[in-house]
Write a structure and sequence with these properties.
Layout (H helix, E strand, L loop, with lengths): L1 H16 L12 E7 L11 H14 L3 E8 H12 L4 E9 L13 E8 L2 E10 L10 E10 L2 E9 L4 H19 L4 E6 L10 H6 L1 E2 L19 E5 L3 E7 L8 E6 L1
Parallel strand pairs: 1-2, 7-8
Antiparallel strand pairs: 1-12, 2-4, 3-4, 5-6, 6-7, 8-10, 9-10, 11-12
């Protein structure tokens, strides 16, 4: 019941914030990125190098929309401030507390969550908690969305970091599908993040059916999670896809995953 209420709240909020928009209006190429920064476990809350690396990758590659997960709030502020001078706006949603997020910056506490960045104007922010149906280990997970006004187009961008497995994951993915699929019929939608699902998993079936995934392949996926050499990060859009790629480093156990859409 709670998951249905979350979906209803999301749809209601979006109808007020987004309004009517033309479907799939043509525009210039849109380079998007999703990255699980592992800012708490891998980076132990370190701010300067972590934020500088993310900001550099976004700016140097000309990313229009970036989605970040597992980011300490202090790290988010570092990324936001470094990109603001280049025309980027950013929003953040707190999911939980990161045990190491205050190790190097005690000013902002242990807030830990997900973020959206865009080289353009962000408006109509929607942030809601996704609750699974299982009473066992009901992890707090967030979904974050906003209208993104880019040069030549407007898209509704959404990111999340779903539960690792089980009924919570299935319920969360189903809720997001029931929210975004109808919207994609009337406006451009960009959805991505750490979905904790592998390409063949049934939880992804509605997204592959209703959207275009940046790499275009479920059978030969790019690796985005290095410890297990598997794919769990995705970029879906109701736009034409042009290609995908990764950039891996020692900053995280995930690779940065890039998708180009038209």
């Amino acid at each position: 019941m709670r998951i249905r209420l979350v979906v209803a709240a999301l749809a209601s909020a979006l109808s007020l914030l987004v309004g009517a928009a033309p479907a799939h209006a043509a525009g210039p190429p849109l380079l998007s990125m999703t990255f699980n920064a592992c800012g708490n476990v891998c980076r132990h809350g370190e701010v300067d190098l972590t934020a500088s690396n993310i900001a550099y990758q976004v700016r140097a590659r000309g990313v229009s929309v970036a989605m970040l997960q597992e980011l300490c709030y202090s790290q988010f502020l570092g990324v936001r401030d470094r990109l603001a001078r280049y025309g980027y706006q950013a929003i953040f949603a707190t999911a939980t507390k990161g045990g190491h997020c205050a190790d190097q910056d005690r000013t902002h506490g242990r807030a830990f969550g997900i973020a959206l960045l865009a080289k353009g104007k962000l408006s109509g922010q929607v942030a809601h908690q996704l609750i699974g149906t299982s009473p066992v280990n009901p992890e707090q997970r967030m979904v974050l969305g906003a209208n993104v006004r880019l040069s030549g187009r407007t898209v509704f961008a959404v990111t999340t970091h779903t539960s690792p497995s089980g009924p919570n994951l299935t319920a969360q993915m189903s809720a997001i599908d029931h929210w975004l699929s109808p919207l994609a019929e009337t406006r451009p939608v960009l959805f991505g993040g750490d979905l904790n699902s592998q390409p063949a998993d049934a939880d992804l079936d509605p997204f592959y059916a209703g959207f275009r995934e940046a790499s275009g392949s479920r059978s030969n996926p790019l690796v985005t999670f290095m410890p297990a050499a598997r794919r769990i990060d995705y970029l879906f859009a109701s736009l034409d896809r042009r290609g995908a790629g990764t950039a891996c480093s020692g900053y995280s156990d995930h690779c940065m995953y890039f998708g180009l859409f038209q």
